[in-house]
Design goal:
- The chain is α+β, with helices and mostly antiparallel strands.
- The chain is 37% helix and 18% strand.
- The radius of gyration is 15 Å and the shape is globular.
- Bound molecules: 2'-deoxyadenosine-5'-diphosphate and magnesium ion.
- The site of 2'-deoxyadenosine-5'-diphosphate has 9 residues, from loops.
C-alpha cells in the first residue's frame, strides 16, 4: 500500500477547549507521521475554497464566520492509507452520532462545532495539503523504528 498524505485542521472550538494536544496525541499514537504543522488564520477566501461543496448551504455563513474568527492548527500527516484511517478516527460529522472511541465521538457534541477537519478522499487531500502548506513547509524524514509500524510487504 502506498504512503498517503492528508490534511487535518484543528478547529477554533478545539483550541478554545484546550484539545490541541489531545487530538495530536491520537495521531501520534496511531503511528501517523506529522510532516507539517502550523497555526494559521483562515481567510474568507480560503474558507470559500475549502468548503466550496457547502457555500450554498444555509449554515455556510456561520461556518465561515466560525472558521475564520480564530486561529486554527493545520497539520499534514503521512501514513499508509492515512486518508481513510484519519476519517475513521474522526467519526461522523454530527459528533453526537460519532462513535465512542473516535475523536469527535470522545470530545465533541455538535455538527458545526466538531473540533476537527480531515480530507475526505485522496484527491481532496492532495489539494488541501497544497492549500495550507507551501512545499518547503512539508518535511521528509523517516521514523527510526519504521519496521515496527509496518511490515515490509504492506
Ligand atoms: P466533514 O467535516 O465530516 O467532512 P462536511 O465536509 O460535510 O463534513 O462538512 C464540513 C463542515 O461543515 C462540518 O465539519 C461542519 C459543517 N457542517 C456540515 N454539515 C452541517 C450542518 N448540517 N449543519 C451545520 N454545520 C454543518
Ligand atoms: Mg468534509
Amino acid at each position: 500500500m502506498a504512503m498517503e498524505r492528508t490534511l487535518i485542521l484543528i478547529k477554533p472550538d478545539a483550541i478554545q477547549r484546550g484539545l490541541i494536544g489531545g487530538i495530536i496525541a491520537r495521531f501520534e499514537a496511531r503511528g501517523l507521521k506529522v510532516i507539517g504543522m502550523k497555526m494559521v488564520k483562515m481567510s474568507a477566501a480560503m474558507s470559500k475554497e475549502h468548503y466550496s461543496h457547502l457555500t450554498s448551504k444555509p449554515f455556510y455563513p456561520d461556518l465561515e464566520k466560525f472558521m475564520t474568527h480564530h486561529p486554527i492548527v493545520a497539520m499534514a500527516l503521512e501514513g499508509k492509507e492515512c486518508v481513510q484511517v484519519v476519517r475513521d478516527m474522526m467519526g461522523a460529522t454530527n459528533a453526537r452520532k460519532a462513535l465512542p472511541g473516535t475523536i469527535r465521538g470522545d470530545m465533541s457534541m455538535s455538527t458545526s462545532r466538531n473540533i476537527i477537519h480531515g480530507s475526505d478522499s485522496l484527491e481532496t487531500a492532495g489539494k488541501e495539503v497544497k492549500r495550507f502548506f507551501k512545499p518547503e513547509e512539508l518535511y521528509e524524514y523517516t521514523f527510526a523504528a519504521q519496521e515496527y509500524n509496518y511490515a515490509p510487504d504492506e
